[in-house]
Write a structure and sequence with these properties.
heterodimer, A: 161 residues, mainly alpha, Ribosomal Protein S8, Chain: A, domain 1, 5 helices, 56% helix, B: 126 residues, elongated
Chain lengths: 161, 126
């Protein structure tokens, strides 16, 4: 199992991508499977950090939360751009202390934060395990730290051990 | 599009809504890029186009081709996935370059140093 499939998740993702691109059929299933297994074996030479997903059932919950938050942030930023005079907007930097150390989880957090128009990942320090983000509409620093820690980080800690 | 006439009205209306939504958000993002003043404010604006801006157009594409071909066409999801996964790379590159420039020039509204104890070694920072 581990000799043939060093990264089963990668192999399955490649198969899924192949099927999405080429349509569902037995021939493409076999071809995509072979490509998935072969490509994940080639990737093993790079020795990427291995991470295991512990709680699959929380992934849809995180995805739904992120989709909703990104939508809300889209509307908020769009409104601030179109009507800049409504309230005095102050943007600024916030330092967020993290508990997350798993590289894959940090990568997911980076995707979430950069895809939310209101926040941007600027710098991460692995020694202090602190994250510097830039917030477009900074009303309350604690609100943003609380949002990242309780809404995203806690779920990520549960999903990726 | 050559088969646009075959599209039922409800699908055409829904798809138009999504296309306009996506295009509108992308336009607002572009306006923000022009109108905002500082670099750090500006990097927020294009995110509109990269998220629901692209998402709206992709949803319309999924809808139109699924209805026209009478089967689920969802390979647009791959576009969304790759846009989402690659956006942080560019943004971090730009953000860190700006931060490096501002720190070396000692600009006014500099962010607080991320590490308070000891010397600032930037080698292991991402």
């Amino acid at each position: 199992m581990s000799r043939l499939l060093p990264y089963p998740l990668l192999a399955v993702s490649l198969l899924a991508m192949w099927l999405l691109l080429n349509g569902l059929s037995l021939g493409h299933f076999v071809l995509g499977g072979v490509i998935g297994v072969a490509a994940s074996n080639v990737t093993a030479a790079l020795q990427p950090p291995r991470s295991r997903i512990r709680r699959w059932h929380l992934i849809p919950k995180l995805a739904a939360i992120v989709l909703f938050d990104v939508w809300r942030s889209n509307v908020a930023v769009a409104r601030l751009i179109l009507f800049p005079g409504q309230h005095r907007r102050v943007s600024g930097f916030v330092i967020v202390p993290l508990e997350l150390r798993e590289p894959a989880a940090l990568a997911v957090l980076a995707c979430i934060l950069t895809c939310t128009p209101g926040t941007a990942w600027v710098e991460y320090d692995s020694t202090a395990n602190k994250l510097l983000i830039h917030v477009f509409d900074l009303v309350d620093e604690m609100h943003w730290i609380d949002l990242i820690k309780n809404r995203y980080e806690r779920l990520l800690l549960e999903i990726l051990a | 599009m050559s088969h646009a006439a075959d599209l039922p009205l409800w699908a055409a209306l829904l798809a138009s809504f999504f296309v306009l939504l996506g295009a509108g958000l992308t336009l607002i993002g572009a306006i923000g890029l022009v109108r905002l003043k500082t670099f750090y404010d500006r990097i927020h604006a294009p995110s509109l186009g990269a998220t629901w801006g692209a998402g709206g157009i992709l949803l319309a594409s999924i809808l139109i081709f699924s209805v026209l071909q009478s089967r689920l066409v969802v390979h647009e999801i791959l576009i969304a996935v790759f846009v989402t996964v690659t956006t942080p790379v560019t943004l971090m590159l730009l953000g860190r370059a700006a931060l490096y420039r501002d720190r070396s020039e000692n600009t006014a509204d500099l962010p607080p140093p991320i590490r308070t104890d000891g010397e600032t070694k930037s080698g292991d920072a991402i």
